[in-house]
Amino acid sequence: MKQRLGKFETQFFAYAQMRRLSTVRTGDMQEALGLSPSQERELLSRLSRAGMIARVTRGLYLVPKQLPFGWEWTPDEASALNTLMKEAGGRYQICGLNAFNHYGYDEQVPARVYAYNDRISGERTIGVITLNLIKVNRRRLGDTEKVKTWDGQLFYSSRVRALLDAVYDWARFGTLPRAYRWIRKDLRAVRIDPAALVRCTLRFGDVGTIRRMGVLLEDEGVDGRLLERLERPLRPTSATIPFIPGKPKRGRVNRRWGVVVND
After folding, report:
1. Distance between CA atoms of 197 and 163, rounded to whole angstroms?
2. Which end of the chain is more exposed for a tag (fewer CB within 10 A), N or C?
3. Paired sense of beta strands 259-261 and 252-254, if any
4. Hey, which residues does 153 pair with through a beta bridge?
5. How many CB atoms lie within 10 A of CB 10?
6. 152-170 pLDDT, tens per residue?
7. How many whole angstroms separate alpha carbon 155 and alpha carbon 73?
8. Which class is domain 7-62?
9. Cut 0.90: pTM above it
């Protein structure tokens, strides 16, 4: 922790607060503070290492509205994720473990933020915020909910989309068979509309997801017309898949959906 601000640090924060800047780029402070490129580079690097600003990408930094007591600061999730994705020119939606916690399916608070997006793949750290970015085709983005936070707004997968992804992306999130219990509970409590779940499955699911969802919805007594709609894109096949991947394929066989119900 820095014990005192130097001349350039003091000028930097005075200027940023006067201009109400939330971000600064390499080059912004050269004319404003009369710095050479190397002086500016050293200043930004020094402030970032001290935890007084947060590096988003090369040459782009988040700046606090005002320095907290002790001068150490980290951005909030909304600022970190929204700034990064705006800089990348992409779309995102928070998914997976964060969405499951947000909708009350899982009480565990994730240590990182999981987000589908169409630009970046891999892990990024901004301040103390760790982002697990899952790059997907732009067509797989959608069915979102805008969530307001104390610090801004975030885009989450909708409740229905989160449930669909718990089945579709089960290997990544480790959510089967728990996801089936979540879906059954929400259907019985009328928290989700089966028609919306069918639409979401057809739009964002794959063949395996459609077949597994078909078994579940059929067992829940969903309207036959919805099941026919879900079944329409499937081709006849003699091959079967397990209802719960990773468990032995032993159990009754649902021929309509080609699924071994091994639960």
Report:
1. 8
2. N
3. antiparallel
4. 148
5. 11
6. 899 999 999 999 999 999 9
7. 24
8. mainly alpha
9. yes
- pLDDT digits 0-9 by tens, 234-257: 999 899 999 999 999 999 999 999
Q: Looking up tokens 């899982």, which residue turns up? A: 106
CATH 1.10.10 residue ranges of the chain are 7-62
